[in-house]
Amino acid sequence: MNVAEKQDMTQDNTNHWVQVVALAEIPQLGARVIETATVNVAVFRTSSDEVFAMRDECPHKKGPLSQGIVHGTSVTCPMHNWKIDLASGEALGPDQGCTNVFPVKIEDGMVFIDLRVAVAA
Known about the structure:
It is built from no helices and ten strands. The strands form three sheets. A four-stranded antiparallel sheet has the order 2-3-4-8, with no helix packed on it. The chain has a three-stranded antiparallel sheet with strand order 1-10-9, with no helix packed on it. The protein is mainly beta.
């Protein structure tokens, strides 16, 4: 899904939250990719319906985290099995590195992301 092409996407210019996907469109233990002009963002849903957003690149070899396996509140990169914490973007030991995470909120079943704020752990 391309954010620029998404017709029903809305943005509040006051706080920069962008509506990106319905929660129901993200499978539990799965992800959806949001494409922007500058970065692809993976939006993950855990088994307990927590939602996280991060750059869709493993800090190791830039593998597509959105294609990884979600377990608990982490994802395993499909390329080299690095485990990444969904909340912080930090690689879990013994690996080291991090990827950017984005603030997420859910309102009325819709997922919003603040794409202007990339938080690096």
